[in-house]
């Protein structure tokens, strides 16, 4: 039996203890030290993505000099870090900056209700031993954008006939024995290109099955300049220099890919050709679309292509006809033998940790709200949504968002204001665009009705460019934020 409900009040409640939530807690303590706050985390450990995913080879697809925090230098040799290394780094940050003692682990936000009379949120939360009610003035959603309950797992024809084991990477079992097994990995995104070379070290054979090719970009796992710069400048100064260089490089590479796609393609293709040859690349790694129409996957040290060249891994490109008792039959007649099938079919996109939200009893449909600068929602008071970049390191945008948020909190305190709400100008017509309009990946398209809309006019936009974001977040006096006392 659970302990009866109790009620506790805070200035701020942060929901989620991954990269976004920990960054928000540190920024809040530094800029607004008098604010009381707590951090809710559904899981029994902090880390978010880096605690949830346990599949072999789990790693970042952004370098840790930009995925890591500007206030906590990354000092390990690897630029592309493993999931356990990232989680260890996040735990260090939480311990060093006093976030750990603010955590409420194993605690899920069920609902959030805003009262316009009380100018406060009432939160219903649950944990193993009790249900509670919290109250807060400001709510920060650091919940990411995908469901922790399960990944996107569409049924494949004939699944019930398979005689082996079938699983999704988001529910990877700790005791799965894949030594000397034949494995089919269905999918070609970041999870698949990470899994395949890792599994191929111990499996008999791993085959990546993709409907169509995606772009795969080779990067060194260890930054070639890191050791020298650390020796010359010291770890902190070297970190700042590498971070600035990589930030600029990410933005320049994205711009080059969009402005000169043929040139960018050649850079990608030449690197792949050197390892597996032009024939394999043309068949399996030459997409029909331009770079960054969908996400570009990073392969550190070309491990995927080395596994293919050495015969430990293979790629099958085409349409699945059905699952058989012993593997996967393709429409082109090929049959891929498998003891294990891994459905690396992507994420199930949700918002707000799948909690229910209302304003004075009226349910909030975030899919019909306009996004305010990619960090808040039209008509929703005292709520911020931590959403990073999808075409660069997530953290780069999160830190800009957090600085802007804390400026708003200080502005409100200085003037005795109790609520802030983004409100569109009455009668102003705005084009309805997807929340992330530059990248058309399938998982974002499937979530079109769940994520807020952006427009073709500021501030109702969600820029995925660092310089544009800096400019957009320079001022809070933009004529659409309504402050109440």
UniProtKB/TrEMBL annotation:
Protein name per its UniProtKB record: FAD-containing monooxygenase EthA
Give the residue spans that cross the bilayer: none
Keywords of this protein's UniProt record, alphabetized?
Answer: Monooxygenase, Oxidoreductase
Query: In which domain of life is the source organism classified?
Result: Bacteria
The similarity annotation says:
Belongs to the FAD-binding monooxygenase family.
Q: Which InterPro entries match?
A: FAD-binding_MO (IPR051820), FAD/NAD-bd_sf (IPR036188)
**Gene source species:** Nocardia rhizosphaerihabitans
What this protein needs as a cofactor is:
FAD
PANTHER family, sorted: MONOOXYGENASE, PUTATIVE (AFU_ORTHOLOGUE AFUA_8G02570)-RELATED (PTHR43872)
Read off the Pfam families from this record: Pyr_redox_3 (PF13738)
């Amino acid at each position: 039996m659970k302990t009866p409900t109790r009620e506790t009040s805070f200035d701020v409640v942060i929901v989620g203890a991954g990269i976004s939530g920990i960054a928000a807690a540190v920024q809040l303590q530094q800029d607004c030290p008098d604010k009381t706050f707590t951090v809710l985390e559904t899981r029994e450990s902090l880390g978010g993505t880096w605690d949830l995913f346990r599949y072999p080879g789990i790693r970042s697809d952004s370098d840790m000099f930009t995925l890591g925090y500007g206030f906590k230098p990354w000092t390990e040799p690897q630029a592309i870090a493993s999931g356990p290394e990232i989680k260890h780094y996040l735990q260090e940050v939480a311990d060093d900056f006093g976030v750990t003692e603010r955590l409420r682990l194993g605690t899920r936000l069920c609902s959030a209700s805003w009262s316009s009379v009380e100018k406060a949120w009432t939160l219903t939360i649950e944990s193993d031993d009790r249900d509670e009610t919290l109250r807060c003035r400001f709510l920060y959603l650091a919940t990411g954008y995908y469901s922790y309950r399960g990944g996107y797992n569409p049924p494949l024809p004939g699944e019930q006939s398979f005689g082996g084991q079938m699983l999704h990477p988001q529910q990877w079992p700790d005791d799965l024995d894949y030594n000397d097994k034949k494995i089919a990995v269905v999918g070609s995104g970041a999870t698949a290109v990470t899994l395949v070379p890792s599994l191929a070290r111990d499996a008999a054979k791993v085959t990546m099955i993709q409907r169509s090719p995606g772009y795969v970009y080779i990067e060194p796992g260890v930054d070639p300049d890191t050791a020298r710069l650390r020796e010359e400048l010291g770890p902190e100064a070297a970190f700042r220099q590498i971070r600035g260089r990589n930030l600029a490089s990410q933005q320049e590479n994205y711009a080059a890919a969009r402005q000169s796609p043929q040139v960018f393609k050649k850079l990608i293709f030449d690197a792949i050709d050197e390892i597996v040859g032009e024939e394999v690349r043309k068949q399996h790694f030459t997409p029909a679309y331009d770079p960054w129409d969908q996400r570009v996957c990073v392969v550190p040290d070309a491990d995927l292509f080395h596994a293919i060249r050495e015969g430990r891994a293979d790629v099958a490109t085409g349409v699945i006809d059905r699952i058989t008792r012993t593997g996967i039959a393709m429409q082109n007649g090929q049959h891929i033998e498998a003891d294990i099938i891994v459905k690396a079919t992507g994420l199930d996109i949700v918002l707000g940790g799948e909690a229910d939200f209302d304003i004075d009893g009226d349910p909030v449909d975030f899919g019909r709200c306009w996004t305010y600068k990619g960090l808040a929602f039209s008509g929703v008071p005292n709520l911020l949504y931590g959403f990073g970049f999808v075409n660069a390191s997530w953290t780069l945008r999160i830190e800009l968002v957090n600085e802007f948020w804390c400026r708003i909190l200080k502005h409100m305190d200085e003037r005795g204001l109790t609520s802030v709400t983004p409100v569109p100008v009455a009668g102003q017509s705005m084009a309805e665009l997807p929340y992330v309009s530059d990248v058309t990946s399938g998982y974002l398209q499937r979530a079109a009705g769940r994520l807020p809309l952006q427009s073709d006019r500021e501030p109702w936009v969600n820029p995925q460019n660092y310089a544009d974001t800096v400019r957009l977040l320079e001022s809070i006096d933009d004529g659409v934020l309504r402050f109440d006392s």
